[in-house]
Write the structure tokens for this entry.
Amino acid sequence: MFKDKAIIIPIQIAMLYLIYLAGKGIQNLFDLFIPGSVIGLLILFTLLSLKLVPEWILQQGVSFMVRHLPFFFIPATVGIISYAYVFKGKGMLLIVIGLFSTALVMALAGRVTQWMVKRREEA
């Protein structure tokens, strides 16, 4: 198939985007309260679990996006500056809560990942 990463990665990212759009479409069609991105994630999980879409078809695009993940958070971080007034008064409490919840998510994600890797090695 294609050997050039400059062609493969955009195609794979476009495939992921189409899955997202399918989830968004399902959300709009059935007027669901679940976000379209979550529905798209469930569609992707189902496709990969049932091996309807082999992992290698999306692997390079996913790796590219994960490698550049911090860049996706820059707009949200810059957007917080517009709401600096929210942090007045109890702002320090919000910062502590944000740092604690971030650390908790990182720790839980690490534990789950370690558990899954250990389980895969045992199998």
User: Anything to note?
Assistant: The chain has five helices and no strands. The CA atoms of residues 59 and 112 lie 21 Å apart. The chain has a mean pLDDT of 89.
